[in-house]
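Reopening this one. Same input as before:
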Amino acid sequence: MNIIYIFVLFIFSLNIYAENLPVSSPVPGGIAIVSLGEASTTQQAPRAFYKDQRVMVMREGNQWQAIIGIALNTEPGEYIVELREGNKIRPLNFQVRDKQYPSQHITLPDQRKVEPNSRDLARITAETAEIKRALGQWTEQSDISTDFSLPVDGQPSNSFGFRRFFNDLPRKPHSGMDISAPTGTPVYAPAPGKVIGAGDYFFNGNTVFVDHGQGLITLYCHLSHIAVKTGQTLNRGGLIGKVGMTGRATGPHLHWGVSLNRTQVDPSLFLKK
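Same output, byte for byte:
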C-alpha cells in the first residue's frame, strides 16, 4: 500500500514539473525548450549556454530541459545550445521557425517622445545601460515558478512583437504585453521574486524590475505609483505598484515585459495554462 502511494506521488510530481514549464514556441520572440538528457534525484542541474549566454535549466519528470529565450530579430534556421560539463561541450541543435508580426501606427502629441533632444538622448543612454544591467542579472535558483498569473486585472493585448511606427517614424518592435486598465489599478507580482530595481525612465516611466531566478526577469512600466523598494522579496500576488501612463504612453495601461537570458520574449508564454 505504501509503495503504491509513493508511486502515485511520484507520478503527480512529474505532472507538476510538466505544467510548470512555459509554453514552447521556437519563433522570434518566443521560447525554445531543448532536452538536455536524463536527471536523477541527486544530480545537479547542468549548465547550458546559447550564444554564450547562460540559459535557464529546469527539470521536467526525469529530464533536464533548457529554456531558451529567442530574440525578435532572430532569423529562421538551426541554432545550437551548448551543454557544458567541465571541459566538455556538447552541442544540441534546435530549429527556430519563422513568424511575421503586424505593424502598428501610434500618434503621440509629444514629439520629444519620438525624437528626443540632445539632453533627452544623454538621459536615455544612461537609462539604457541601467536597464541592460537589470535584465542581465543571473541568480542561481532551483525553485522557479514559470506559471505566471496575469499581473493586473485588465484587458491584455496581443501587441508583443508588433513593428511600431510613432508619428509615422519606425521604432523598435514592441517588446512586452500591454494590459489596459484604469489609472490606480493595483499591479501584483505574477510569481515569487525579488525587486532588483525601480525608477523613473524617459520611455518606460515609473518602472519596477523583478528577478525570478536563472535569468528570468519581469518588468512593469508606466506605473503611476511604485509600492516596492530594491531588495524587497515578493510572494505571488505581492503589490508592485499601480497602473498609470508615465513615460511614453497614450493612455493608462501596464506594459509587462519578460526577459529570459537577456532576451525579451512573449509574456503570454508564461501565463498559467
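So the earlier flakiness isn't reproducible anymore. For the record, Residues 1-19 have pLDDT under 50 and may be disordered.
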